[in-house]
Amino acid sequence: MGAMSEIDVFVIGGGPVGMVLSAELARHGVRVRVADRRAEPVHHSHASILHARTQEVFDAMGIAGRWWPYAHPFARATIYAFGTVVGALELAGADSPFSVPLDVGQNVTEAILVKRLRELGVTVERPVEATSVREAGDAVEIDLRRADGAIETVRAGWLVGCEGSHSIVREHCGIPFEGKRYAAREFVQTDARVRWSYTAGVGHLFIERDRFLGCFPMDGSGLFRVLCARPDRNPDDRSDPTLEEMQAIVREIADPDAVLSEPLWLNRFRTQARRAPTYRAGRMFLAGDAGHVHVPVAGQGMNTGIQDAFNLAWKLAAVVHGRAPDALLDTYSAERTPVAAGLLRGTDAGFNTLSRPNAALRFALEHLAPLALDARAVQTTLRNLVEEIAIGYRASALSEQHDRGSLRAGDRVPDALLVDVAAGVNCTAFDAMRGEGWTLFAIVDDDASLDAASIAALQEIAGAFTDLRCRAVAVDPRRVAAGIDVLADRDRTLHDRWDVHRPTAILVRPDRYLGFRGPLDDLAALRAYLARWAAAPAATAAA
């Protein structure tokens, strides 16, 4: 047996999901190690879309701007069915500070995350393979094998499998991976320059009788991800397609004079749709492709996995530090497995529509889809779904509502422009949430005040619980007594967006979802909520 080492959390898998999880754990002060059996990060684009919610995650991590020099805004995708323009999906305009998805290679994403981990004192250990995992009382033991044959056993308080669909963690836990393989269908793709009659810098999606072709912009001057799903004529063929093969596809479906050149990557693959019914078994968790895989429609996979990691990290950190009960960790699977279930339903339906439209679907594409895509409400709904800002956790045990506001407990909290009264500068609601803990907003309208007694009660709550900060938001900041940070909302942006029309307490989770909402003049329910989900300093010290 090799050397034994101990750590708080061990992460198997050093792709984007594992690195986001590890970076967030380290940012929260957790001792974490992460290992990957690959010798190096990926060298090609692979998962290449960053949706609005993922960019918000990176903003909370303090690194969102690092992608901008390398990314192309993917603002629009025109849809063609059977040779006719159906309409366009307008991807720009999401209700987020990051209002347009970014097209940027996974190789860039991994390089940025590697750098962030190093800043936090963490290195992805490569190539290191986890050969076995086992429960060991109040810990987990992981056997690791390095490239030189050296064996190490790690003892960790918690283990997270982010190692993809062939997860050793999932297999050890005996968690099913339910779903199906898309038989008789194959995908071929390349990232290449495309010279043709269609506009560069935007997307183009072509639907035919038994196949579809998607061309997604990687820059503004003709570099595209070219992806075709078609009948699988030779299921045993594992070779990469040639550039000539990809060019022939584009010429046959889209433009007979198209010329493809300068390929960066060529790939052939088959896919499946599967998910685990739970992401937790004792001290072991699943995240990303270890818990869900699906057909590549709308670029949801990596984004969903990153949000798995962001959801789990703060909860795991709170439990590691003794600041929350073990029950908090159960909310991870309870919140994220329904997201994966919905994702698989949606991508499966979308794939079937795109790749094998029957007569009814063809009629709908040709006659109904143009009308639907011309409707603003339809565009907004589709955009919010694709950009993943419509995801919420209203059914979660962490979501508690005591008033009738339309922004409900469990919803993602939208941003709003405010003024930091003390500093005299503009700021945002997202700025007010920065840090590792919960944020309590005490919000008063223009006809209400926040007096000294109310502020004392709020500060008593903030002081009684670890990782909790308090902010007052007022239309007229002069109506707020001293002793609390005040944010001015003079044009009522936050009040309107958060649907606040009376003095209200809104508690925002570390992942920027609304945890608790109730009247500001009765804080008993808020105290009870915090007592259930957060530990007071005295309890932490005694742990």
UniProtKB/TrEMBL annotation:
Signal peptide: none annotated. This is Oxygenase. PANTHER family: BINDING MONOOXYGENASE, PUTATIVE (JCVI)-RELATED, TRK SYSTEM POTASSIUM UPTAKE PROTEIN. Keywords: FAD, Flavoprotein. InterPro entries: FAD-bd, FAD/NAD-bd_sf, RIFMO-like, Thioredoxin-like_sf. Residues 6-345 form the FAD-binding domain. Its cofactor is FAD. It comes from the Bacteria. One of its GO terms (molecular function) is oxidoreductase activity, acting on paired donors, with incorporation or reduction of molecular oxygen, NAD(P)H as one donor, and incorporation of one atom of oxygen. Belongs to the PheA/TfdB FAD monooxygenase family.
